[in-house]
Design goal:
The protein has 265 residues and is an alpha+beta fold. It has three domains: 141 residues, Transcription Regulator spoIIAA; 42 residues, no CATH class; 65 residues, Winged helix-like DNA-binding domain superfamily/Winged helix DNA-binding domain (Arc Repressor Mutant, subunit A). Helix content is 44%, strand content 19%. It is built from 13 helices and eleven strands. The strands form three sheets. Strands 1-2-3-5-4 form a five-stranded mixed beta sheet, covered by helices on one side. Strand 10 and strand 11 form a beta hairpin.
C-alpha cells in the first residue's frame, strides 16, 4: 500500500460487497467480512487519507436487515466514501444459472427501493452526503474518477475489457486477459472496437449523466418541451428546482431512468 502511495495514488476502494456470510456465498465471494476492517486499518496505517468501500444490494435471499447490517458495519469502519450498487446479474455466471433454474429469485422492486433509501438515510446520518446516484462521501472525499465519468470528461481505461473516452470517441479493449496479453506482447493494439459519438448522442448522454449528480441538470440546457414533459415529476416531488438546476429527490432517484427517458425521447 505504501508503494501505491509513493507512485501517486491517493485513494483506495475496498470491495466489501456485504458483511453477511450467506449473501457473500450467493455472490460467490470468498473473503471473510472481518478482513475488510483489517484492510481499512492497513490502508490508514500506510497513509491513505481517503478510503472507500463498495457495497452491493439486492442479492437473492438478502433481507432489508441483512443490508442494514452491511451498511452499519461499513460506516463503523470510519471510511470516507461508500459506493452502493444494485446487483446486476451477468449472463453466463453461476448466479445467472441459479436464477434461470429457479433455485433462487431476485428481490422485488419494493425491497430494492427500501434498500436504496436505507443506505441513503444511514449515510446521511453518518455525515456522508450523496453526490452521485450510487455514491456518498464526506466533504472533499468525492471520487474525482467517478465525477469525470458523470461530467463526460476524457478518461483512459487500462487493462482487459477497459473502456476509454477521448474527445467524443469511445473505445474498449479485448475482454479476455490471455488475448489482451497476446496482443500487447505482439506489439499490437488491444483495442477491440470504437465508436464516434454523434451530437445527438452527446446531448442525450449529458442529460443522462448530469441527472445522476447532486447538482442536477442546468435548465438552460433543456428545451421548453423537455421541461413540460417532466413538470409532473416536479409536482409529485420527484424533482426539485435549486439554483436553476433540476435535482432528484431520494424518491426521484429511484426512478431516474424513467425521468431520463422522458427527457431524451
Amino acid at each position: 500500500m505504501r508503494q501505491y502511495l509513493d507512485a501517486g495514488f491517493n485513494r483506495i476502494s475496498i470491495g466489501m460487497q456485504s458483511a453477511v456470510p450467506h449473501v457473500l456465498a450467493t455472490l460467490d465471494r470468498t473473503h471473510i467480512p472481518a478482513n475488510v476492517a483489517k484492510a481499512v486499518e492497513m490502508a490508514r496505517d500506510a497513509g491513505f487519507s481517503s478510503v472507500s468501500v463498495d457495497l452491493i444490494y439486492g442479492t437473492p435471499g438478502e433481507s432489508l436487515e441483512d443490508w442494514r447490517t452491511s451498511i452499519e458495519l461499513a460506516l463503523s469502519l470510519g471510511v470516507d466514501h461508500i459506493s452502493a450498487y444494485a446487483l446486476i446479474v451477468e449472463s453466463g455466471t453461476k448466479l445467472a444459472a441459479q436464477i434461470k433454474r429457479g433455485d433462487i429469485s431476485m428481490p422485488n422492486d419494493d425491497l430494492m427501493a427500501d434498500m436504496y433509501l436505507l443506505v441513503n438515510q444511514l449515510c446521511n446520518q453518518a455525515g456522508l452526503q450523496w453526490y452521485e446516484l450510487s455514491n456518498w462521501s464526506r466533504p472533499g472525499h468525492e471520487c474525482r474518477h467517478n465525477v469525470a465519468y458523470w461530467e463526460n470528461k476524457n478518461w483512459w481505461g487500462l487493462g482487459p475489457g477497459a473502456h476509454s473516452h477521448i474527445d467524443g470517441k469511445r473505445f474498449w479493449n479485448l475482454k479476455h486477459p490471455t488475448t489482451y496479453k497476446a496482443k500487447l506482447f505482439g506489439g499490437e493494439s488491444p483495442i477491440l472496437d470504437s465508436e464516434i459519438l454523434t451530437e445527438e448522442q452527446m446531448r442525450d448522454e449529458s442529460i443522462m449523466l448530469a441527472i445522476r449528480m447532486r447538482e442536477g441538470i442546468d435548465i438552460s440546457s433543456l428545451t421548453p418541451t423537455q421541461l413540460e414533459r417532466i413538470e409532473s415529476y416536479r409536482e409529485s416531488g420527484h424533482i426539485s428546482m435549486v439554483d436553476k438546476h433540476l435535482q432528484l429527490s431520494p424518491q426521484g432517484r429511484l426512478i431516474a431512468d424513467r425521468i431520463v427517458r422522458e427527457l431524451v425521447i
